[in-house]
Amino acid sequence: MDVRVERTRRALQQALFALAREHPLEDVTVADIVTRAGLNRSSFYQHYSDKETLLADALDAAAESAGADLPELTEPLAGPPQALFDYLAHLDENAEVYRRVLGPHGSAVVMARLRGRIESIVQEGITKADTPAFDGLPLDVVGAGIAGSALGVIEAWLARDPRPPVATAADWVWRVLLGPGGSWPARS
C-alpha cells in the first residue's frame, strides 16, 4: 500500500479511536474525525465509505499496536494462550469503547469483523487439533457457535461493574471455548 494512503488511513483510525474513547459513536461525526486527524472530508471518503468500517479498522490497528492480536491456535493448549490475555488486556484498557461497539446498540460492522476473525481462528484450531469432539458437525457451524459464545462471554465481562480482572475473563472465555469436557482431545 502507498505510504501516503497508509498514513492517511492511520490518521483517520487514530482520530476515530480517540474520539470513540471520549464520546458515544453515534455522537461522533465525520467532521469530528477529519478535524481530529487534520484532514479534509474528501480524504475520509477517499478511504472509507462509512464510520463503522473505519472503526473496525481502527480497533484492529489498536489491538495490533498493543500486541493484542487474536491468537492463531497452532496446537492444543492446556490453558489460555498468552495472546488471549493480551487481547483481553487491550479490551480492558479500552473497555468503554468496546462496551459501546459490542453492546446492544453497537456496531454491526465491528461485531461482524470480530466474529469472523474468531470463527476463522476456531476453525483453524479445530482442524489442526484433529479432534473428534465435533464429528458430524459442519466446521462453519462449530466456528459460529464458539465465536458467538466467546463474544457473549466478553460482552458480559465488559458489562460487569466492577469488572473482574483480565485473568478471570481469560479463564471464562477459555472454559467456554473448551466446553463441558474441558479439552478438545486429538484423534488417536
From TrEMBL:
This is TetR family transcriptional regulator. PROSITE patterns: HTH_TETR_2 (PS50977). Keywords: DNA-binding. It holds the Pfam family TetR_N. InterPro entries: Homeodomain-like_sf (IPR009057), HTH-type_Tx_Regulator (IPR050624), HTH_TetR (IPR001647). GO terms for molecular function: DNA binding. Residues 29-48 bind DNA.
